[in-house]
Every structure is written in structure tokens, then in C-alpha cells.
Specification:
The protein is an alpha+beta fold and about 350 residues long. The chain has a domain of about 220 residues: Catalase core domain (Catalase HpII,  Chain A, domain 1, Beta Barrel), CATH 2.40.180.10. Helices cover about 30% and strands about 20% of the residues. The protein contains 7 helices and 10 strands. Strands 1, 2, 3, 4, 5, 6, 7, 8, 9 and 10 form a 10-stranded antiparallel β-sheet that branches.
Amino acid sequence: MTPPRPPLTGRQRTLRIALISSVVVVSAAAFGYVGGWLAPSRLSPGRIVDTLEHNGGDHPGFRRNHAKGVCVAGVFEASGDAATLSRAGLFAHGVQTPVLGRLAIPGGNPYAADSSVPIRSFALRFTEANGQQWRTGMNAMPVFPVTTPKAFYDLQVATAPDPATGKPDPAKAGAFFGAHPETHAFLGWIKTAKPSASYVTESYNSLNAFYFVDANGKRHAVRWSLVPDASDAAPGPAGDADYLATDLNRRLAAGPLRWHLRVTLAAPGDVVDDATVAWPADRQQVDAGTLTILATQPQESGPCRDVNYDPLVLPDGIMGSNDPLLAARSAAYADSYRRRTTEEARGESAR
């Protein structure tokens, strides 16, 4: 039996308290620096969210981006083919994992017409049997426009609506894109992109890279996509600003909706920390399983309303890459979540 430790002397207690206090102070200082509190000129999550709020308008209680959307619920059934790449329990053959998701369009206006933007998004929260979660936000586009949080902030400033016209100033936007050649791939795509008539026929991409970690601790750089079974989108009804939700409910009334989760593996030399660079189409892919959506709930009262789809909430077996956008997304999502839930608690929500 281990003998009891002798009581601490006064000097030892003082040293221990000092040590604990120093750790708290250092941690707080580091957190303050990340938050921008100790460096007012430094880009902070709050400043990023401020620009989104400015551009999208004042809509208390709503997300500052992807404000318009609908909750969906379903299940993910693993094929087992990704189990050699990741030790995450949800990839084991035949495992069924409940999923809570949200389909949405970009922008801070929850009343925007579905045809106002050509991009759709899909956020998911997988909850494993052991309680660990995987949260991911994907977009129906091939690449992200910019590489860094600062460039994303500058993009929001450059494309802010002009008070006189309600639209971005072409000169400011043009100057931004001219100074950022990394946006060329995105611009090449968006020039021909058109608003789809259905959430269900879209493929959604992680854009950022992550690492799958296998049972031996080996890391595999990956991106993932949701690829739909459906491919029969028709033009949205004329005059219906909310045709995406209408189409989604109509399809669900006829039966469940399915996507395949396809994981793409990077090859040696592929860029892992830059979401503006697409990997070549010949990269190895693995069908990790099938996502089945069974039902919808309205966003104002559905269970996804209070979920922060932070892309760095990851289970054992998945890790974030060094892409700087990941940490920025995580911090900005947290700030947006804090604002909207505080507004709801104060009764300021416009819902």
C-alpha cells in the first residue's frame, strides 16, 4: 500500500498556486491573442463575422452565413472500404451512424431567393455509438476562392454591397481578384455555374483536406465528397423563392434520398493545405458508405438549429490538416454561434 504523502509546506503551496496561476495566465493570453483582444489590428474571428453580418444584413437569431436552410435527419451506413484508412468507428463495415444535417445556400439573408446564388451547401453531424462526433460542412463547388483567412476577409470587404446600388462595386471586386491569382480556378467555374433546381442532385465537396488515421497510426491525406444517387433535377418553379425546400419535401414524400460518401486520397506531392487547388481526377477513391436522408424539419425549430457545424469537431481516426482556413472556420463558426444563441436568449430573434 502506498504511504500517504506528507502535507505540503506553506512554501510548497505558494509555489503550486503560482504555477497554476501562470498556466492560466499564459492560456488566457494565448486565447486572447487568437481572439484578437490583445492585438486590435489583428484579424480576429469577430471581424470576419462582422463582415458577413454587414454583407448579409441584420437578421438576429440566424447564422451569419448559410442563413437560409432546412434540417434533415438520417443515417450513414458504412461499406467498410474506408476502415483500412481510418480507425473511426463509423467506417467499420455495416455500422449505422445517426446523422443530423442541414442543407442551405450561402449568404447571411435567411429570406434570399434560392436562385440568388449558384452554390448549395450540406453540413452533417455524425454521432458514433461511443458519443464521439464528426462534423463536416461541404459545398457544391470544386474549389474554394481563396487560400487564407485574411484573403477571405478582404474578399468580403471587396464584395460588400454598395449602399447606392445594393450590389458589389465592380471596381473594388475587380481589384481584389486581380491581386489574388489563386482565385482564378474558382472564377473559371463560377462564370458558368447556374443555380441548381434541387439540393438532392448536387455533389458536395469538403474542399479542405484532412487526414484519416488508421489502426497503426498512419495518416492518409484525404478529401471527401457526397455524390447523389438522383440526377433528374428540373428547373425550379417560376416565382417560387423557396423551390429547394419544396423539391426536397416532394422527393422525401416518395422515399428516402441517398448519397455516397466518396473519399479521395492524395498522391505524393499533392497540395494538402490549399483549398483553391483541386487534386487531379485520377486520384484513388474509396466509397466509404451511403448517407440516407429520411426526413426534414424546419430550420427555426428543427434539431439542427442549435448545432455548430465546426469542421474541427472530429472523432478519433480523423485529423485536421494544416490548411489555415480550417482553424479560421472553426473560430468564426463559434463566434457566429455565440451571437445567434445570445440573441435568441434575449428574445431578439426575428423568427
